[in-house]
Amino acid sequence: MNLDFPRLRLLSSSMYYLVMIVLAIPFLFPTLWMLTASLKSDQEIFQNPLALIPQSISWDNFTRIFHDYPFAAQYVNSVYIAVVVTALTLIIGALAGYGFARLNFPGKDLMFILCLSAMMLPSEALSIPQFALFKFLGINNTHLPIILLQIFGGTGALAVFMMRQHFLTLPRELDEAALMDGLDRWGIFWRIMLPLARPVLVAVGIFAFLNSWNDYFNPLVYLNSSEQYTLPLGLQTFTDPLGGVFWNLTLAASTLSTLPLLLAFLVAQKQFVQSMVGSSVKG
Amino acid sequence: MKHARRNLMLLTLLSLSTASAQEKVTLRFTTWAGGDGLKLLQTLATEFTKKNPSINVEVESIPFASYDQKLTVQMAGGTSPDVGWVAERSAPAYMSSKSLVDLNPYIKSNSSMRISDYAPASMTLWKKGEGIYGLPFSFSPIFMYYNKDLFQKAGIPTPSELLAQKKWNYAAFEASAAAIKKAAPNAYGGTLLRLDPTNWAAGILAAMYSSGGDIFNKDLSSCTMNSAGTVQAFEMMQRMIKEGSAPKLGEQVTFASGNLGMYADQVSYSGQLSNVKFKWDIVPMPSGPKGQKTLLGQAGYAVFSGSKHQKEAIQFVAFLSSPAVMKRTAQFFPPPRRSILNSDAYLNSNPLIPAASLRQAVLKQVSGAKALIVPANWAQVNDVVVRNMDRIFRPSANVKDELNQVCNDINPLLR
């Protein structure tokens, strides 16, 4: 009858971990496979496709993508575009979201619906008129259309929507109290509202960064030279003279382009999950 | 489209305040080349500018999978590239939408173009009526790569030996594949299909042609995928997959891994075999009841009608297609100019393939090779076949019935 309680608990928790580890395999395997395949030669990848451990580790793939291809330039492009897009989306999203939630002005609802429509139209349907517009502005073949289409396209609209919903949930008494204490509109926004919106800002920031980082279609349409390409396009350029893919180089480049996201997620995981839970409970 | 173009011309006229635009022209040249092929094109562009200081050429590399998508948006948006590569399977679509410029007037007035030097089969795709809408730079028959080590292991005569004895036919191909599978259970004997099922129209077409089959009738008005010859070719692959001598559909087995005895592809594939650890060689495709036939892969240079510098763009195409330049691009793409194709310099240009093998597999096959001429909506037709591939190659499938169904779906697309 002497039930060894701590040991039972240990047993049940190790069972729990075992089940979790088994369940995680399907999610982890592709990433692990990419990591290890990027250290193999092109032939070895196909010799035994499921093998995780390379016969001999070679860093050659990684040196070649930097040496023979403009991969470094493409990396820099992707990073700076994603940072600019994230920063501008946050600023515009927070300001516009606050405006839609708190200010009264004629045509407010119509404008909000117009703004949301940017989120609902598929980007391919708009691509030709947008292309003509940017051509008229003379900024084709620069990074500007890619940045602008994120900030004022679906990503930006989603940011405005999320920020507005969040500000709507904050009690108006806060604004009134701050007004009584002598703050003006800007002061209320900057000192009271924005700090309260931190979890949503984090979520919006992550979405904006991810959307920009993974954008394939717009760079494909607007960019013409390999030095200007962003990573998703660059990943498709590791080919032989007639377009046959060098998988070893492609996988090495994919590994490098995924790592920052993995790291960022690991670091910001807590806040990310919190913000998702927070917004759903309050909303 | 016409209106758009007129408006654009007005716009450009308005913006012609930049007088320098008239003095120095910049051409945009698009390609899906990668690696060394791209580097060579960039070098050629620089050399062209040296010869023609008023024309600058920017080489733009676009991933092959998105090549047509990007070009279509740019053409519709009024910023068409001036000149570029066009793949054989998209050429009819570009030609029917009048997106390519007729090069014939220029060719006629320039004897230096020596168009008669081109092998006739290389031009069929690009000619329409009196017009010539592109000049091929690649003339690449499909042939058979085989793994010498696996043949040795199986203790059977190699395809080269069979060819010398005039016994290299599809029955021998199938039997050799079975023997390899038996001797090396971890490997596969051979396949006529590609890794990517959307690219099915390659090696298996050679087998279809040499047993009298095809995809379409001559004027592309009806589907002949259910003809006896086509059915025969598909049935052979079905048998081989069923018996395990060919990899199943979608199974990731490549020739370069050393696990595949025979594989049908073009010269450019040899680039992936530069440091493999097994011995290999190439032979022509096997012969069938209707003789030895194969598919001729092609790609060409074309000038786009959206270009505002068509004259200069044609000049660049003429430069790229000149014998001197084609000799240099020949290291990657078998040249359609007969004078170069037949030269020793070309036959010795591939460091991986011995001249004698190249002569046999490329040169001698060219006369029996056929370019695949497709309708403008090939993408849709191809989708129908790809969708049905799994069903056609099921072990229990009746291939003839399945291909009848495929034709039922394709025929409405051809009208």
Automatic annotation (TrEMBL), chain A:
CDD domains: TM_PBP2 (cd06261). It comes from the Bacteria. Residues 75-268 form the ABC transmembrane type-1 domain. GO terms for cellular component: plasma membrane. InterPro entries: MetI-like (IPR000515), MetI-like_sf (IPR035906). Keywords: Cell membrane, Membrane, Transmembrane, Transmembrane helix, Transport. Belongs to the binding-protein-dependent transport system permease family. This is sn-glycerol-3-phosphate transport system permease protein UgpE. It comes from Deinococcus cellulosilyticus (strain DSM 18568 / NBRC 106333 / KACC 11606 / 5516J-15). The gene is ugpE.
TrEMBL record, chain B:
Pfam families: SBP_bac_1 (PF01547). Residues 1-21 form the signal peptide. The keyword Lipoprotein applies. InterPro entries: Bact_solute-bd_prot1, SBP. Keywords: Cell membrane, Lipoprotein, Membrane, Palmitate, Signal. Transmembrane segments: none annotated. This is ABC transporter substrate-binding protein. It comes from Deinococcus cellulosilyticus (strain DSM 18568 / NBRC 106333 / KACC 11606 / 5516J-15). The lineage of its organism: Bacteria, Thermotogati, Deinococcota, Deinococci, Deinococcales.
